């Protein structure tokens, strides 16, 4: 890799790209919480993982949005207005994050907030799914999606202020202020958490805006194009992007995104919500593992970096040391003579690896489920088409 | 030629981060649009209809409206 100087095979990048392409195309999220730990597992340095993921996301979201747009899943007007709210919310949230960082409490506060939020979203969506399935059994009728909630109705009634407009894609009349409000709220939370926010925006579009599930997926992907471009730009400015890796990942993701987006045609909104719920729980588990590893990082990180700075190393050189375990060992044990730092570093590293393996397993499992659903959907469509053709031929022969 | 492009871009990361950022985003946008159009062309060639379709929320009887 020309920027980071790391030796890495191309196939893990292609496979990770494909997997998150399938998952992202199906849910409408960027999926940084899946990509960054997975990249790390294959030896890609964490300092380049986030930026490289953000960069490949730009191309992937264009490919996936294009397909969703063809299906009629993208409400451009909602996405554009929400984008304004999202960016202003992110900026405000980022200021609060900066304040928390200065107080030295950002890491844990943010992670606990994120855990609570993800667990709440997951539990709420799962309980709603189970309630619908129970209702189906009682009524003896299949429910394919749920449109609107008491919250979305309250927001639309309370913020029913001019200018309002009819959105034909989502089949709803909505005030510009209602969309801005939801955008600011989700952007604010994403800003505090320091995440892209797709995993928050999709449920927000569904539950706070009352948008049908598939429209929420397509509309969020449209937003991801812009937020991804912003993220890619800022990370590139800091030199945290490996363009070769981003291009390889994009090639895999473009193929995966076709499978993921096409699958949304064959499953119902309620199924997308169930898989999204499972993904939310995995994301929550990933944050818990991150919190555990950060406890070990607290033992050595500050002291080790201060020691390296005393040795005359720059911030960039310190970052480069973390990219190679042997070098970390050399400085911690042989130069600084602090084996306890090395023990804490090893545990931190192992917990991070555990998070990576969990996320990789989750992504692979969800990806396999989506591909099976796609296969079943296509097979059903082909079967129905053949039956229609046979019926037409039979009628023709009779006449 | 592709290898040279990546080497040139990596050089920008060291010498001109702003240009590097523009090149990165530009490369992704160009590739995304190109791949999107190529994929659409392939679906057309294979005669796979992936246009608009009747969604489940358009079927009032199968949707719970709150």
UniProtKB/TrEMBL annotation, chain A:
Compartments, record wording: Cell membrane; Membrane
Species this chain originates from: Desulfofundulus australicus DSM 11792
Membrane-topology descriptor: Multi-pass membrane protein
Stated family: Belongs to the 4-toluene sulfonate uptake permease (TSUP) (TC 2.A.102) family.
TM ranges: 12-35, 41-59, 71-100, 112-132, 176-200, 243-263, 270-289, 357-378
Broad class of the protein's primary localization: membrane
Record's protein name: Probable membrane transporter protein
Keyword terms, alphabetized: Cell membrane, Membrane, Transmembrane, Transmembrane helix
GO CC terms, sorted: plasma membrane
Pfam families tied to this protein: TauE
From TrEMBL, chain B:
Membrane-spanning residues: 20-46
Top-level taxon: Bacteria
Keywords: Membrane, Transmembrane, Transmembrane helix
Protein name: Uncharacterized protein
